[in-house]
Amino acid sequence: MSTSFRTHTCGELRSDHVGERVTLAGWVHRRRDHGHLAFFDLRDRHGITQVVTNAEDAAEAHAAAEPARNEWVGQVEGVVRSRPVRTANAELATGEVEIAVDRFVVLNPSKVPPFYINEAQPCLDESLRLKHRYLDLRRPQMQARMLMRSRLASAIRKALEDDG
Q: For a Cys-Cys bond, which of 8, 42, 102, 112 suits 26, CB 3.0-4.6 Å?
């Protein structure tokens, strides 16, 4: 899905995209800093893609990404490359590729969320979830429920339309 903010979604890149220049936008799902290398899992509603900033290859992008933390919204531009076999993630649809970032733009910084969006928390207080409903709706469990509710409502509407 190409828009002015992105050429692809975070869930659609595969090994046949290697070598392509892409633009992605989404939430910083997880960040791992290794000095001159920083790894980010960028998330949108379609999936997660690993992006990498390298201080030696793209110092400006690496510096722009430095303050980014979980749930910040960012846009990245770079080239799709294969991940080394030992670091490929079979649990992700995009686990065979990563983006070598040469441009990182923080679209919206975020305060530290009151709970983690990307981790299952069975004991999460319901009043906290309701107070921060806009964050709760980003959780995968809630996304699945909303999608199921939408499909159910659509099926009911279709059945009623078919019956006249």
A: 42
